[in-house]
Structure formats: C-alpha cells, structure tokens
Model the fold of this input.
Amino acid sequence: MENTPANSSRRDFIKTATQATAGLSVLSGIHIPYVHAQGDDTISVALVGCGGRGTGAASNMMGVKQRTRLVAMADVQENRLEASFNGLSGKHPDRFSVSADTKFIGFDAYKKAIDMLKPNDIVILATPPAFRWVQFQYAIDKGVNVFMEKPICVDAPSGRRMLELGKKAEAKGLKVGVGLMCRHCRVRGELFDRIQQGEIGDIILGRAYRLQGPVGTCFTKPRDVATDPNELIYQIKNFHSFLWASGGAFSDFNIHNIDEICWMKNDFPIEAKATGGRTERGDYVDQNFDHYSVEYTFRDGSKFWLEGRNAMKTHNEFASYVHGSKGMAVVSTAGHFPSKAMTFKGQNKNPKEIIWRGKQPEPNPYDLEWQDLVDAITNGKPYNEVERGAMASLVTVMGRMSAHTGQLVTFDQLMAHDHEFAPNVDKLTMDGAAPLIADASGKYPIPLPGVNGLYEYVVPKA
Ligand SMILES: NC(=O)c1ccc[n+]([C@@H]2O[C@H](COP(=O)([O-])OP(=O)(O)OC[C@H]3O[C@@H](n4cnc5c(N)ncnc54)[C@H](O)[C@@H]3O)[C@@H](O)[C@H]2O)c1
Done:
C-alpha cells in the first residue's frame, strides 16, 4: 500500500510556521517542515532512495557553503528511510527540516517528495539505477535540478532515454549532476590537463582493475519467504544481483574505473570484446558472473583493458592506469580517493622516473561534486552531466553485454539494441509482480555466452 502524507496537517502547519522556527525543533526531536521566507535563497532538497549512498549524498549536500536544507525523503522501504532520517537529523540538525508528513513511502513516493520542491531546488535520485529515467522525467516536468547517482541506465533502451531526457533538462536550463565524483577530483583534473598537453605522449593503453571480494549484494541466496515475503522488495534489496535493477555487479562496480580511463583518453570506446564466467557459485541465485575481462577499443585503435572480479581469497586491486608513447600515469591508486595520481617517464611505476605527483592531501570528491553543482545553481551557470554520465553507463553496458553474450559488441550495435530488462519499471507497485520471476527452484535466468545471441539472458516462456 502506498503511504499518503497528511497533507492537510502540513498545510495547516505552513500557515503558522516561520523560517525562524523551522529546523530548530530538530534539537528537541520534533521535525518541522521548512518554509521559505520572502527573499530567502535557501535551496531545498528532497532525497529519493534513502540507502547508503543517498544518505551519504544528502550529507555531502549539507556541507556546501551555500544554504541548503533537506525537506523531504522518499523510499520504498520504511526502515531504510527511518535509518537515514535518524542519521541525517542527528548529524546536520541545522540543515534538516524533514517532518513526519514529508517522509513518503512507496513506488510513487518520489513524486510526493519532488512536489515539495520549487524551481532552483534539487532532488537527489539515489535509488538503484533502474528507476533513474522514471524519476528524472518527473523532476524535469516539475522543473527542479537533479543530482543523480551512477550508473544512470542499465541497458541500451534506458540509456537512449536518458540521453533524450538530458537534452530536455538542458533545454529547460536545469542543472544536473551525475555521481561519477572522480570527475570532480582536482588532482585527476590536473592529470587530465597534463595528459592532454602531451606529458606522457599519445595514449595507447588504459588498464583498470576492480578486483575485490563479494561486496554489496552481488551474491544472493534464494529468497526465504519468511524473511522476504515480497519478491519485488527482495530484488530491490539485493539490487546488485539483478540486471534489471542495477546492471549487475559489472555496471555498479566497474563504471568508475571505466569512466576514469575514458576521461583521460578524452573519448569513449566503440567496441568491446569480453570474457567472464561463474566459478564458485554454490546456491547463489544472482545473475552475475564473478569475473570479467574486457578489451575495449577506441576509434583510433588504442585499447583499454578492464578486469573486474568478486571472489574470496583472490588478489585485490582497485586502480586505473594509462600508458602513453612517452610514459605512464597512475589515475587512481586504491579506491576513489585520494587518487594519488602521478606521471612517470617510461612504462614502469619507477619512483626514480616520476615526472609529477598530485598535491596531497586531496579534498573528498563526494564533497566537490556537490559544491560544483550548487555553485552552478547559485551562479546560473550551465551544468549538465547527463550525456557524459549516460555515455559512461552505456559503454559499461557494452562491456557487460559482450561478456554475458560471448560476442564482440560495437557501440552502434548496442545503441540499436532492443533488450530492455524492465520495460514496466515506471508502473511497479508494492503488491505487484517483480520484473524477474524465479523458477520453481528459486533460480533466475543467468547469462549464457554463445546461447542467446546478443541477449544477456532470456526469460523462459511460461
Ligand atoms: N558514487 C558512488 O561512489 C556510489 C557509491 C555507492 C552507491 N552508488 C550508487 O547509488 C545508488 C544506490 O546505491 P546504495 O548503495 O545507496 O543502495 P542502497 O540499497 O543502500 O539504497 C538504495 C535505496 O533506494 C531505495 N529504493 C529502491 N527503489 C526505490 C524506488 N523506486 N523509489 C524510492 N526508493 C527506492 C531502497 O529501498 C534503498 O533504501 C546506486 O545507483 C549505486 O550504484 C554510488
């Protein structure tokens, strides 16, 4: 059942609440809706998807130098919203004005949260990416700015839709940030400038590694109806396991490193040739491979090699490198930040051959991406990261599709592809069916390279 806020009580309250009192009552544990006074330039923000990253993004938003304030929250899981509410209200009471009647639960909750905003305000879209185009479309219609988490699509049709929506947002002058925060890292930005100026020659190879244990929800056990009575919510809770929800572990985890290499190359690849497989899967029922290896090709013929793995007791590495005709560069060393970016003469990371080393300590790029977005809003500067975010998401899909199908996949083939994993994602309801149905043994269709042409999986006919 969808939750309906007590709109009447909100309206009554707004009549009497003043800016002076709004938010202060957080200290006494009562959360009062925020009301704009005339001339007040505070940017109100709504959070849609109150999980780990949504809560983190809201916290980053509350750290910008301009006045910002969280006024509404939406989720499909009440316990996630409440945990986020408690964490954020305690950490940032001065920027928190979410009240009982601005907390919304359900698949239409995003509409109610966005309806609390006015032009110039921001909605944070931090659900699994399946819902991105649906919620972005509504935000554009309502004329509000957007911060959306990566990836921003899970398949070619949703990627094409995001590219179109990005243009629509631009035409309306909306500011849109995409959570590929490494693009806002100042040290990586300096590295990009140095590479473009030829410090390491022409880029001929990129290498990226996201080799880690089974993190997030990429390995999932069969649903236990006693603890997970709702199939759809079970799939959303375990979104890394379901291609319709997240694009799988491949899209969710590898996109940052893929985007870093494409940034440094200043281009996106036109082709992917990949392998991958499931080794020790036990009774896990997710749709992921546990290891992937992709050779991407750029239009000038240069290559980018990506390795992704989720497996226990194996070599861990989370890093990106580019090699040029005169030297090599570290783009990221171990995770998202600090990047510890460096350039070297020659192809080895030889400490005696360092050309340049990024200044330390590096500011947190999760804070920088917010400061940059809010600066653009307050200064009225164009700001739209959708095309770049959609391209990064799509070339990620291209690599995954190649591994899952066992075929060489070109970007043109991808862009013409019709496999939409969850075409009815905008119509899901709490009591309705999930986009993917398990078979009698609780298993879901998995990718079978060489079996289904360019289709990553096929749902058996009932
Ligand atoms: N930029 C980064 O470094 C980074 C890091 C982590 C996650 N992310 C991205 O953030 C997104 C969320 O990841 P997370 O780790 O926070 O997941 P999470 O499961 O912790 O949070 C997702 C939340 O969205 C809610 N939700 C799902 N469907 C919804 C819907 N239709 N409407 C409203 N709420 C809905 C879930 O109930 C959950 O509370 C993903 O796209 C992920 O890739 C980005």
Residues 48-54, 74-77, 80, 107, 109-110, 126-129, 131, 149-150, 179, 181, 236, 252 surround nicotinamide-adenine-dinucleotide (CB under 6 Å). The chain has two domains: 7-182+370-384, 186-362+393-427.
